[in-house]
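Checklist before submission:
- one chain only
- standard amino acids only
- sequence pasted in full

Submission:
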Amino acid sequence: MQYRRFGKTNLHLSVFSLGTMRYLADAENAQQTIETALALGINHIETARGYGKSEEFFGKALKAGLSVPRSQLHITSKIPPTADVDTMRRYIDESLEKLQLDYLDCLGIHGLNTWEHLELVQSGCIEAVQEAIADGRVRHVGFSTHGSLDLIQAAINTDLFEFVNLHYYYFFQRHAPAIQLATEKDMGIFIISPADKGGRLYTPPQTLKDLCDPFSPLELNYRFLLSDRRITTLSIGPANPEELIAPLRVADSVDELTSAEIAAFGRLANQQQIALGTDKCSSCYACLPCPENINIPEVLRLRNLAVAYDMTDYSKYRYGMFENAGHWFAGMKANRCTECGDCLPRCPEELDIPALLQNSHERLNGKAGRRLWG
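Returned file contents:
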């Protein structure tokens, strides 16, 4: 296991972190998963108020005794933005009580996904967090987000935060400017769910496996991220201890990309161009805003992946979240398109966006297996 400085927090975190949203079968499974993670070198555990009994299970494991002293563990919990200071004060106290901790190493504002959320933080609840920092109950504050790039950049520019948790993968590089801005601000950077949200890479289609060979798609995505020294840590969200083993085989692979890895990424890029041709959306976002609130670039990104790499299961899974996940995955489905044509003159590739939206809906509106979303 390798370790990196988490920005201005000056914590040194393992390059993989244990996410605890999925270890919720029972307290015994949670404890075994935590102990396995610690034995494999993970020193950062991330939970949240909204993750069912996750905080409570961690507290029980801590009380039972862990193989690593508390002083060598870094614990993050996340709390959503609240409308008033008193509610945030109460939530912080409740999380500490469930976790059976005197302090949190890191507190993340959870799901800073809308401009209203950012306003809530700035106008009130950050005061409660700052009080907790002053009295030692919280050491560092950051935020997690599923929001738009401009919102993420605005939150970073408030200078209220020391770290950020966000989506960024080989198959989704929209947030590259946020990575750079956070780096310039010396913020820690925590990548959310690279295996699942990064493409369901634990169950890749054969086309994708062939293009990535001799690497697995999951391994290649991890290497894309770990070779970037700006990124501190990646989350793993195992449902049980066994799911930790395969990802951590690359926990020491943090050097620059090799020629073979670069060649594999070249094959992926070539395949997309060949398969999509003049229908390839480059996700420039010039088509927005859409009068019907369709997230056109994300819909067409999912179509790109389904057409180029047969990543249909993943694309259906994400597409099915539109209209079902609120601010965690905002936007309407592609069949809401009225063919108004507003987007057409703004597209630098001159795509027939209404036709592509219709095709996307036909391809992706079926059922796909799902995990907990977010």
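Reviewer check: The longest strand covers residues 138-144.
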